[in-house]
Amino acid sequence: MSELRPADNGFLRQLRALLPEAAFQADPAAFLTEPRGRWQGRGHVVSPATTQEVSVLLRACFDAQVPVVPYGGGTGLVGGQIAEDITPVILSLHRMAQVRAVFAEENVIEVDAGIILADVQAVAEAADRLFPLSLASEGSARIGGLLATNAGGLNVIRYGNARAQCLGLEVVLADGTIWNGMSRLRKDNTGYDLRDLMIGSEGTLGVITGASLRLMPRPGDEATALFVVTDPAAAVRLLARAGEQIGEAVTAFELIHRQGLAFLAEAGIAHHAPFARPPEWMVLIKVGLSAGQSAQAALEQLFEGALDLVSDGVIAQSQQQAQDLWAIRELIPEANRKIGSISSHDISLPISAIPDFIAKAPCEIGKIGPFRINCFGHLGDGNLHYNVFPPQGSSRDTYLAEREAVKTTVHDLVHSFGGSVSAEHGIGRLKVADLECYGDPAKLTMMRAIKTALDPRGILNPGAVLRHHGDHG
Amino acid sequence: MSELRPADNGFLRQLRALLPEAAFQADPAAFLTEPRGRWQGRGHVVSPATTQEVSVLLRACFDAQVPVVPYGGGTGLVGGQIAEDITPVILSLHRMAQVRAVFAEENVIEVDAGIILADVQAVAEAADRLFPLSLASEGSARIGGLLATNAGGLNVIRYGNARAQCLGLEVVLADGTIWNGMSRLRKDNTGYDLRDLMIGSEGTLGVITGASLRLMPRPGDEATALFVVTDPAAAVRLLARAGEQIGEAVTAFELIHRQGLAFLAEAGIAHHAPFARPPEWMVLIKVGLSAGQSAQAALEQLFEGALDLVSDGVIAQSQQQAQDLWAIRELIPEANRKIGSISSHDISLPISAIPDFIAKAPCEIGKIGPFRINCFGHLGDGNLHYNVFPPQGSSRDTYLAEREAVKTTVHDLVHSFGGSVSAEHGIGRLKVADLECYGDPAKLTMMRAIKTALDPRGILNPGAVLRHHGDHG
């Protein structure tokens, strides 16, 4: 890859001659920060209205060797949407936000990449279908970004991550070529799986402009329970038993630790305490069956057959009770933000290694300092959010010097168990060094070869996922 | 890619110095034909016993620029396992057929790539789990080949194709580098999705030596029904309704045409006729629910609510009855072979386009000749096996001259509906020209760039999927 050139005024004048004025109206300020406020980016926002305009824009950037940062809803947590070193074109898809077609009978919806996730969910619901991807930022995250980062969320145990929801893609390549892969097919073995290569490549191999998405039947009867488990090993066994008894109808299986409830109290966040005395480990389970079956009965049966693993439990008897239970899980991240973590980790582990990891990690972290740990998350996917906090009464700022040691300790341990240091958030710019450190060398060699093959001038999101050739970090 | 060299005696002497004698014991004859008897291949069989030996072998081939054809069970139907033009090393995985580990609690099994599918199914069953991949050749097809071709089969509507069953891979690359991607993780967003790139690449990007596979809960209660539908449009509507009522528990949804029953009779294949007068269109449905629920009741309910679509039906009242119904579906390919098709097509279509396709295709084919059509297959996946036969009393040999016209007519029509000319069999060597003809040009350009990036000397299965650089076909 050769040297990139910044998007300077001369280049912008060139773009204005190629694209309608409407593509240059966005307020740049909104595109230069990210949710955690860690980075301050730079760049000029261009927002095309059609795939053809995206193609024209990329062709111009390719010819001039100007970097392009594809931009969805801006909700990424690893800096994939923020360039700091060189002034890029920020290619926002927000003006491409239409539903292209709904095929309810075949469970397919075709959309522009700039459509917001909540809007896809709503269109699916109007067609009596479910678009199962669901996560905290669903009100602002856009499909293109969700696919580019292979987003996860709450329902992955049942429905898979963003990758599993996608049947086809339309992608504009580095040189402006449009790949029309907007397939509605369930089976198509004609050549390499470029769809899945693009999904999760974080805008470094192409710009997703459209997607053909899979819809699912809506479960007719849902129920939620919060079970007290004796320890994480019991939680893992309960997960296996839930699968044996309830099959694929387990929609969510979330681990909650007492620390999460304590943080809710400490942060003054109102919630319904589910138990008089907060137990140490809980799992929040959601089951969705088809109409005419009883999800509540399935949870009761699970409870009754699991008295060796479960010491107490609440099965929601109403929609309101279910919402109250879910509120606990959904408010924990807010409590975490208010307490202020020293270091947060989005990790995954082989599911049967989770009890060992949860036993060992606090010992290792305890050697660095007297920290508090809030360990919670998507146990059903082996995905934990493992966050480390200062002791009560101290501020995170006191321990900034320990952040790197904490992070390395957690990541080393995860790696030793065969886990991943980025389960659902991606690499972005934050974890490039982690990928280099923990990634299989053959994998990194292949990734670099593919990057060079598909983006020979290195203009697509340079510095994300892989270090840019010119970088010395 | 530069010129390849055949695996001559000098090169074989070199290999014998590098690998144990046991790697050179296989009878080559078994590796030089394929199920349909269309090709007669060439090559020298080498069968390593370890990943390390595969690496040594590939390194030697890379250095000498000798082609390698990776070989699983040899059951592929598109010639992916057969080289005709140059003498390659046939790299058979049959001596690497061990189960490496079973993690029943986390629903994972790790295996060598040479293990036979039926053996994986048996190990899963012994652990009270299901490995859902199931197809006619499961007694001889090997996991490495099934993944390399992204095999489909009967249960795809519920469980997905081979791709969906795989969590991680171990792959030896063209130059002998071993990529250890044997992950047991459900979520891992650290870099490009090389796993799915390897899956379906038909041995042209790397040699799969190991796989980490996902197991599923075993359904506790299963039931099968054969419903008579008024026409293909009713079948598609019934499929949607089955999803709405029964959710993801629909395990199979197969279309059968009267011609299939007629062929069973014509070929003298014994079976239980399900209806006194064979109806024109039928769907065979299998439902699997968890224990304690009634799959039979679910099918009865589906039938009762679908009297606008369904005119008659049999719901199996016993295991034996269910087997009899399934035998009809499973014997049809045998009947087809006995009758002898002029041209067979493994196609997929957007599901809602299927009625139109089924209406139009016979008109187009009728212009070529007075042929009989047996259209059946995995309607739930939009995947039809669309086979064209001579008129009764004539032999296929009479119509060999029409084969190409029939094939082109079917494929052109499939393509015009946004369908695929290879739903589950892959490209191999048989459909290279089809991929060039119907594939999106940007897709082909990307595929070639990736091939060159990962296999710069073009030694891996040359001529499969993509034309080899030196080929002029």
TrEMBL record, chains A, B:
InterPro entries, alphabetized: FAD-bd_oxidored_4_C, FAD-bd_PCMH, FAD-bd_PCMH-like_sf, FAD-bd_PCMH_sub1, FAD-bd_PCMH_sub2, FAD-linked_Oxase-like_C, FAD-oxidored/transferase_4, Oxid_FAD_bind_N
Annotated keywords: FAD, Flavoprotein
Pfam family for this entry, one: FAD_binding_4
Superkingdom of this protein's organism: Bacteria
Residues of the FAD-binding PCMH-type domain: 38-218
Required cofactor(s): FAD
UniProt key word Membrane: no
GO BP: any one term: respiratory electron transport chain
Single GO molecular function: catalytic activity
Family label: Belongs to the FAD-binding oxidoreductase/transferase type 4 family.
Protein name listed in UniProt: Hydroxyacid dehydrogenase
